[in-house]
Design brief:
The protein has 347 residues and is an alpha+beta fold. The chain has helices at 3-19, 30-63, 82-111, 238-249, 259-267, 270-273, 307-315, 317-320, 333-343; strands at 127-135, 138-146, 149-156, 158-162, 171-178, 183-186, 194-196, 202-206, 212-218, 230-236, 297-298, 303-304. It has a 5-stranded mixed β-sheet with strand order 3-2-1-5-8, with helices on one face. It has a 5-stranded mixed β-sheet with strand order 4-10-9-6-7. A two-stranded antiparallel ribbon has the order 11-12. Strand 2 and strand 3 form a beta hairpin. The longest helix has 34 residues, at 30-63. The radius of gyration is 27 Å and the shape is elongated. Bound molecules: dinuclear copper ion. Dinuclear copper ion binds next to loops. Dinuclear copper ion binds at residues 134, 137, 183, 218, 220-222, 226, 229.
């Protein structure tokens, strides 16, 4: 196996291990429910056709199999039959027409705003607006507005959204943008897949009443680390979501004990790409690190967010995620440790 093939297999394996339940057959939202219903219906129609065709085939093979002595004469040949021609044109046309209709209905159900208005002038209660930016190879989430309130929170890879409850339907409107190439946003248990295309504005709605962690994956090949462009959607109860918003809205904590690490971070090229609100780091090319430690993973959810992996990442990102856009900066061990210690305080 070549190195790149080994890497590919490794990536798929790593992704599969981290992904847990990503089956469309355990839907957790109305949209995902519509998709699975359509899948079963199409499967049933296809299974029926399969059984009929194979049944006729096996019947003919058995019924007209060769018996007795071989002869040179062909059996009587039949050319053209209007009833048969009509039957095998009309029956498939009707089946295709039926599938088009149910497919169109499902498209409608999946794309329509769930229990929420679609125009900005309408009542915006319970609606969360997030702009999702697909980047090689991670996701940026820009929180714009919730419940009519303006927000300015930016985070990466882990999308928090509020769950609906009996009294209040809550839904999340994702505006999908790409900063570079085509990606595709797909969280199978929450709904359909939507392409993220440079220069094009696509939208996707999420809605569920089941809090929990939902996993997904970039579903459009976008380069070397496509397999490590994972999606984690954390559906919080409305109260938890409010708390999360509140903590994310704060600027980064300033811990005097790690001031050397902070200065080291701010004096290195880190600031050209990364942002830490409350400091002079204003980069907008790489993940916002203001609340880095509130996230469970780093590197496009490729690895767990802990001291060891952070150190590994700062030391040599290419070793952890070959081809990623962050280079190794060749920091001294001391500087590297100070920076990691600082990063670990960014709760
Ligand atoms: Cu982004 Cu594949």
């Amino acid at each position: 196996m070549s190195d790149s093939a080994a890497l590919g297999t490794g990536c798929i394996f790593a992704a599969a291990q981290q992904m847990g339940d990503v089956s469309i057959f355990s839907p957790a939202s109305p949209q995902a429910g519509s998709i699975v219903t359509l899948s079963w219906l199409v499967f049933a129609v296809a299974a029926f056709i399969f059984v009929v065709v194979e049944g006729v085939l096996f019947y003919c093979v058995f019924r007209f199999r060769h018996r007795g002595e071989p002869t040179d004469t062909e059996p009587p040949q039949v050319y053209g039959s209007h009833p048969i021609e009509i039957a095998w044109t009309v029956a498939p046309s009707m089946i295709v027409f039926f599938l088009v209709l149910v497919g169109a209905r499902t498209l409608w159900e999946v794309n329509i705003a769930p229990a929420a208005p679609t125009t900005e002038s309408a009542d915006e209660s319970g609606v969360l607006d997030v702009t999702v930016v697909g980047r090689q190879w991670w996701w940026e989430y820009q929180y714009k507005r919730y419940d009519g309130r303006e927000l300015s929170i930016i985070t990466a890879n882990e999308l928090h959204i509020p769950a609906s409850d009996a009294e209040t339907p809550r839904s999340t409107r994702l505006a999908l943008r790409s900063a570079d190439v085509c990606h595709s946003f797909w969280v199978p248990r929450l709904g359909g897949k939507m392409d993220v295309i440079p220069g094009r504005h696509n939208t996707l709605w999420l809605e569920t009443d089941k809090p929990g962690l939902y996993l997904g994956q970039c579903a459009e090949y976008c380069g070397t680390q496509h397999a490590h462009m994972l999606i984690r959607v954390v559906v919080d109860s409305p109260a938890d979501f409010e708390r999360w918003l509140e903590s994310q809205a704060k600027p980064a904590v300033e811990d005097a004990e790690v001031s050397q690490g902070r200065e080291a971070f701010l004096s290195e090229s880190c600031v050209n790409c990364h942002r830490i609100r409350g400091t002079t780091a204003h980069g907008n090319y790489a993940p916002d690190l203001t609340h880095l430690m509130s996230r469970k993973t780093i590197a496009g959810a490729a690895v767990e967010n802990n001291a060891e992996n952070l150190e590994h990442w700062v030391h040599d990102p290419q070793d952890l995620k070959p081809g990623c856009l962050m280079p190794a900066f060749g920091l001294t061990d001391k500087k590297q440790q100070m920076i990691v210690r600082y990063l670990l305080t960014l709760e």
